[in-house]
UniProtKB/TrEMBL annotation:
The chain crosses the membrane at residues 34-54, 75-95, 101-121, 133-152, 172-194, 201-229, 241-260, 272-293, 299-320. Belongs to the NIPA family. It is a multi-pass membrane protein. The gene is NIPAL3. This is NIPA like domain containing 3. It comes from Pseudonaja textilis (Eastern brown snake). Its main location: membrane. PANTHER family: NIPA-LIKE PROTEIN 3, PTHR12570. GO terms for molecular function: magnesium ion transmembrane transporter activity. It is found in: Membrane. The keyword Membrane applies. Keywords: Membrane, Transmembrane, Transmembrane helix.
Length: 399
């Protein structure tokens, strides 16, 4: 009996008892997800405020009488600082939370831009105009907030250490190689139709942006994760894969900006924001699920609720951007190609109406002396009528 109650036997029983680490892992996953989500939300908020500050700075300069460069204003520099701070926050978020969780949080930027835009509006409105103009935006903001909450709550909990060896294994895995093959083929086909067939549809251009964006978010997470692991003590900057990922990140970001610039010249910004967000989010989540295996250990309920949160966020962003007021540019003159009886050109370059004289003149300034008689316009009888006590006069021009 004394032997059974000895301290050594009690210690042995404590050691042999199984220790559950599920609660510790869940707490760690939730904390990492929360840190990444908060960093992403903070970054998107700062980016929205920064862009609105810079836009406000340009508007002030246009309305001001004195000519002053935009980079000499404090408002523009404040916006640039907040923009860099926001980009740093979004970049850091990829190092903590899974890729499939950070990508949909771009809806926060649309919500913040709507709210900040309403604050900066300086116009009088009536209650009827307010209901017609802003109710859809408020409903969209509410739906986007609900979708964001579901995304954070039911987001994936895969937290893999971003070491150079792990990233190399993901790069040579057959699911990712198959995904890259399909993406390259699709990208080449879209680029062919866009450049050669002139298929400049908004879906085509933004699909090119989304395909490039999927590679951007993969490389951003790899670079950010390896930097954080190196800061924690396990140096990863000596791996060549780190610099390969960094170069791919810069290259894909540059080409994305180029295609977005071309899209902004053809379509409205609100359409680009809604369609681009939906396409980029869907393809980005697919890339994260294939490359980083974000949903490999998730149950069906969490995946379904995560997809529901994405759909609600998509609907909210669509409602927000649908009610944006389009800018109508006023032209105080008539363009020359729109004037009647002026020379127009076909696609092949042939003139519809030949030039009658080498000098350019039109209207009352035309000199018709050198034109042959065959081109002389017919002379019409001019009749002037005067009512009441006025007389009627008529005369014709004789040759």
């Amino acid at each position: 009996m004394e032997k059974a109650n000895s301290p050594s036997l009690q210690l042995e029983q404590l050691v042999t008892q199984p220790i559950s680490v599920t609660d510790h892992e869940d707490a760690f996953s939730y904390r990492e997800n929360l840190i990444g989500a908060l960093l992403a939300i903070f970054g998107h908020l700062m980016i929205s405020i920064a862009l609105n500050l810079q836009k406000y700075s340009h508007i002030r300069l246009v309305s001001c009488k004195e000519t002053k460069a935009y980079f000499r204003t404090k408002t523009w520099w404040c916006g640039l600082f907040l923009l860099c701070l926001g980009e740093l926050g979004v970049f850091s978020a990829y190092a903590f939370a899974p890729l499939s969780l950070i990508v949909p949080l771009g809806a926060v930027s649309v919500i913040a831009s709507t709210i900040v835009g309403v604050i900066f509006i300086r116009e009088k409105w009536k209650p009827k105009d307010f209901l017609r103009r802003y109710v859809l935006s408020f409903i969209g903001c509410a739906l986007a907030i609900v979708g964001t909450y579901l995304l954070i709550t039911f987001g994936p909990n895969n937290h893999e250490v971003m070491t150079g060896e792990n990233i190399r294994k993901h790069l040579v895995s057959w699911p990712f190689l198959l995904y890259m093959l399909v993406e390259i083929i699709l990208f080449c086909l879209l680029l062919y139709f866009y450049k050669q067939k002139k298929a400049d549809y908004i879906v085509v251009i933004l699909l090119l942006v989304a395909l490039l964006g999927s590679m951007t978010v993969i490389t951003v997470k790899a670079v950010a994760g390896m930097i954080v692991v190196s800061i924690r003590g396990n140096m990863q900057l000596g791996y060549p894969i780190f610099y390969i990922m960094a170069v791919c990140m810069v290259a894909t970001t540059t080409f994305q900006a180029e295609f977005l610039t071309q899209a902004s010249q053809l379509y409205d910004v609100s359409q680009i924001a809604s369609v681009g967000y939906i396409l980029s989010t869907v393809i980005g989540i697919t890339a994260g699920a294939i490359f980083y295996l974000d949903f490999i250990a998730e149950d069906v309920l969490h995946i379904c609720m995560f997809c529901l949160g994405c759909l609600i966020a998509f609907l909210g962003v669509f409602l927000i951007t649908k009610n944006k007021r389009k800018c109508v540019f006023f032209e105080p003159y008539i363009s020359m190609d729109a004037m009647p009886s002026m020379q127009n050109l076909h696609d092949n370059g042939t003139a519809v109406q030949p030039e009658l004289k080498p000098s350019f003149s039109y209207g009352a300034l035309e000199n018709n002396d050198s034109i042959s008689e065959i081109y002389t316009p017919a002379t019409l009888t001019v009749v002037q009528e005067e009512h009441a006590s006025c007389r009627i006069m008529s005369h014709s021009k004789s040759e």
